Amino acid sequence: MNCEQIRELLDEFPLTEFSAQQLVAAEKHAGNCPECEKLLTTEKELESLLKKLPEPEASADLTAAVMTRIQQHDEKIKIVAQEPTPIQTSEWPISMVAAGIAITFCIYAYELFNGRSTTFNLYSLWTDGWQQWLFSPVQLNLVGLLIAGSFAFYLFGFFSMLRDREFSR
Amino acid sequence: MDQAPSGDNEDVRRLICAIRNGDQQAYSKVMQLYQRRVIALALMIVRDSGGAEDVAQDAFVRAYTHLDRYDEQREFYPWLATITVRLARNWLRTEARTTAREDVFVADETETNISLDSLDEIIADESGRKLWHSVASLPSGERTATLLYYRQEMKVVDIAAAMDVSSGTIKTMLFRARQKLRVALEEDKLESEN
Q1: ipTM
Q2: Which of A100, A112, B40, B153 meets the CB 3.0–4.6 Å disulfide criterion with A146?
Q3: Residue burial B151-173, b: 16+ Cβ < 10 Å; e: rest
Q4: Out of A51, A57, A59, closest to residue B151 by CB
Q5: What is the mean pLDDT of chain B?
Q6: CATH code of the domain covering residue B122
Q7: Is B3 a member of any domain?
Q8: For residue A90, what is the DSSP state?
Q9: What's the pTM value of the predicted model, to 2 decimals?
């Protein structure tokens, strides 16, 4: 190892990350090179000092303050766990659509079992064109049911939220 | 006060397990192990003893309330250090808004105004204070990386994760810090010889 290689290594890694082989080679070179010896000595001294960098004492109140805050946090969690879970606002649109679809399918199933098939007539889409298909009573009925179902669920969700607010007071 | 070893031992894992099972008091034992390291880290970043205490308190509370996110397969301290670094950065940002303090982790070579008035109270040893001042006068990223790497023996990859930068950046920060500290050390030697 030569002076340049030692400098390059020290630019890349702290002395602590030198491999055993690299360290031996560097020290061997430093034995004949006062400049590199000085560099390695300073580096060792610096690393040893940094390892001993003092860490301040924590104040006596720290643990007490943290434990108090933790207890308050746990108490809050317990109270929240006992409350009825309100319907999350972000879940409403999905729930509404799901409810609309469910209600629609229930009514269609009822009609189907009573001999009136009102399922999508995809064949009429081909024969009559999309405008007639879309505005046919069957499709309008379907859209209307979806809207009615969604609205009903929205009202249900809204009143549930009001009820949950009452509980949390 | 007890000092936690560089790597987490089985005791720490057992304590974490106990906390997860509802033993709140086990957390005070975890705090005993890590509080000096956390305060040192916070102090090194914010350079304000009151601020460091606030950051340390918030870091311990945050670690407790988010313990479900801690992966037991990994060491505990790097995770705690990551929380501390982020809260300390937030503290600096809040302070910067009111007191026009330094920007976070920006290598500003000219920053020299260290607000560590009460350092004498928390670090008793004079040579220790001197060394602390030398490290604390480095730019924010360099001093944080130096403390985490040399004093708290964290791996470069963990420091990078805690400071939200690449491992290469940490190596560069450590290299620059070493260069500056080497000069400071040599100047100090010359001073004491004269």
Answers
A1: 0.77
A2: A100
A3: bbebebebbbbbbebeeebbbbb
A4: A51
A5: 81
A6: 1.10.1740.10
A7: no
A8: G
A9: 0.66
